[in-house]
Amino acid sequence: RNMSSAGPEGRKKMRECDGLIDSLVYYIQGAIADHEPNDKATENCVCILHNLSYQLEIELPESYAQSIYMQRRNISSSDKTPGCFGTRSRKVKEKQQDTPLPEEKSNPRGVESLWHSTLIRIYLSLIAKSTRNYTQEASLGALQNLTAGTGPMPFAVARTVVQKANGLPSIRTMLHVSHPTVKKTAVSLLRNLSRNTSLQSDIAREVLPDLVSILPESVPESDIVCETAASVCYTLFNLTQSSSHNARLLLNADGLPKIITISMNDSNMFSKASRAASVLLYSLWSHTDLHSAYKK
Asked: How many CA atoms lie within 13 Å of 38's alpha carbon, on the beta-carbon side?
């Protein structure tokens, strides 16, 4: 577990180690089958896999990168995907969504297992069944890592989480735990998932009211609460930017007063959340059909 956080070269060596990833997955599967998702060894295994999934899209061996990203040969390398503040064109979005997804191998081995649906379902199972905060956080964090990029692999993982494995109910539960880093990681995962336009209606229906409910009523009390609030605002931005229906959902969940309160706080410590809330407000105002509702 310590070695897996030793940087890119350490991750590369461990990913290439014959049988290591397969053994970790095998152990976790056994723990879940034996109804023992809370033991320390399971936590260690998940934390290792979490670390090995970090920057996986960038650090993939050339052979995997070629086979997975061959379909992207028609997409210009100059098409970048900026963050929430970017003016991402419809064309780039459509190219991302239309990119064919990589085919899964029925018996993945080694590094192939890291993005396979089997392991994605294991993470979701641990999120639902484990009561160990580090195990929950590492499972959420692994999924966050795997959905962080803009290529076909992160998009395929996101679609598996939301549509194939029905993972949103388990992630939604993590929004309401008392452990702040678990909550923060759950929101960060939802932020990644919400970038995919084809998944936004599912995400909004399942978790938008929950996201609004965890926004602070007043000035956030700590850095981690501030970061979580900012991440919630970015996620809501993604969900409402192109959907008047989702913006109305936010309004009906009494989100507007909270967002206004956060946006008006100009202290340096919480500027990140304030800025995110302001961008969200600006985006919400673009839905002209809701102006009268906003004013009320």
From this structure: 6
DSSP letters, 39-106, are SHHHHHHHHHHHHHTTTHHHH--HHHHHHHHGGGGGS-TT-----TTS---HHHHHHHHHSPPPPPPS
Q: Give me Rg for the CA atoms of the chain.
A: 20
Query: Can you tell me the distance from the alpha carbon of 41 to that of 294, in angstroms, rounded to the nearest whole number?
Result: 51
13 in Cβ contact with 102 (< 8 Å):
no
- In angstroms, what CA-CA distances link 88 with 50, 81, 83, 85? 29, 7, 8, 9
In this predicted structure, what is the pLDDT of residue 87? 34
Entry pTM: 0.87
Residues 220/273, Cβ–Cβ less than 8 Å: yes
pLDDT, average across residues 47-57: 94
Most confident of 64-68, 93-97, 166-170, 271-275: 166-170
